[in-house]
Amino acid sequence: MPATYTFDVFSSLDGFGSHCGDWGGYWGKQGPELLDRRLALYDEEPRMVFGAATFRQFVSMLAESTEGSDVRDAWVTRMRNLPATVVSTSLEGPLDWPDATVARGDAVDVVARLKEESPVPLRSHGSLSMNRALMAAGLVDRVQVTVFPVITGRTGQAPVFENAADFDLELIESRTLDGRTQELTYRPVLHA
After folding, report:
1. Which option is the CATH number for 5-190: 3.30.40.10, 3.40.50.1370, 3.40.50.300, 3.40.430.10?
2. How far is residue 149's CA from residue 184's CA, in Å, rounded to a whole number?
3. Bridge partners of 186?
4. Pairing state of beta strands 5-12 and 122-125?
5. Which residues are CB-neighbours of 66 under 8 A, at least 6 positions away?
6. How far apart (Å, rounded) are the C-alpha atoms in residues 38 and 127?
7. pLDDT tens readout for residues 79-109
């Protein structure tokens, strides 16, 4: 049975994955329920899958952060210590990540192989363009969107589903965290 692949992404209500404003991490809306939930998501110890650009961003953010900053939340530390595959044609090892390997080739081919071979679930946080391609190829089993209660009309960057194919979404699970942030998990099906 193929491993389950989850595309995990943070978003503003208006669909941006990041911002260039003064909001701070989590758009300043993190709370104890959110942070506890994020940590619990990594209890199953998945294999992480990153595109090269997102991987570089994580490595850079962690290198520039200080102990105790929200960049080094417990869930990020746990995620960093999981085995990871970085899909890239340009990165060279060794990587500044405890258990990361580079997989060369097209992301669709790499992830299709990983789904067949991995004994554990696969999870990708961010890596927007890679995950849009994987969704179009039918390789994403779950899309988990954490929607923060902000509209970043002027400062929003990285539209999460920009130029994505059309999908019907079946809601698998939803929860409200800290009374304001929504975590929505869907099964995507390419819209015919």
Report:
1. 3.40.430.10
2. 13
3. 143, 171
4. parallel
5. 72
6. 17
7. 999 999 999 988 877 788 899 999 999 999 9
Tokens of 32: 């104890």
3 state SS for the chain: CCCCEEEEEEEECCCEEEECCCCCHHHHCCCHHHHHHHHHHCCCCCEEEEEHHHHHHHHHHHHHCCCCCHHHCHHHHHHHCCCEEEECCCCCCCCCCCCEEEECCCHHHHHHHHHHHCCCCEEEECCHHHHHHHHHCCCCCEEEEEEECCCCCCCEEEECCCCCCCEEEEEEEEEEECCCEEEEEEEEEECC
pLDDT digits (tens, 9 = 90+) for 22-58: 998 899 999 999 999 999 999 989 999 999 999 998 8
- Residues, the chain, total? 192
Q: Which residues contact 29 (CB under 8 A, 6 or more apart)?
A: 148, 149, 150, 178, 180, 181
d(CA 174, CA 23): 25
Closest CA to 169 of 148, 142, 138: 142
Q: Which two tokens stand for residue 113?
A: 């192989």
Tell me the two tokens of residue 166. 């059309």
